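Mods, move this if it's the wrong board.
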Amino acid sequence: MNVARFLTQTAVLERRVTQDTYAGNAYAAPVTISVRWATEAHLLRGRDGGEVVSDTHLSTLAVIREGDRVTDEAGRAREVVRVRVNRGTRGTMSHYVAYLA
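Not the wrong board. Structure tokens:
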């Protein structure tokens, strides 16, 4: 099933191009992507054992990675802290789910 018809909302995606502890992150030019927003709390544990609560996630067909920045329709910029790849019933990639901090 093609999920594109369900992605009726938008977000602005800025892909992280560099990560620097001292100077901060640098991002590529913003692009508007089609998404479906969802509000649901998730406790996420990082590889270092740290915990983050994500109260919002989005589904999209756009390639999205941890560390990217997403701005919602209200203008709030948020970091992508976890990305999950959902697969269809035939095992092929269906869409990405990005959890936001």
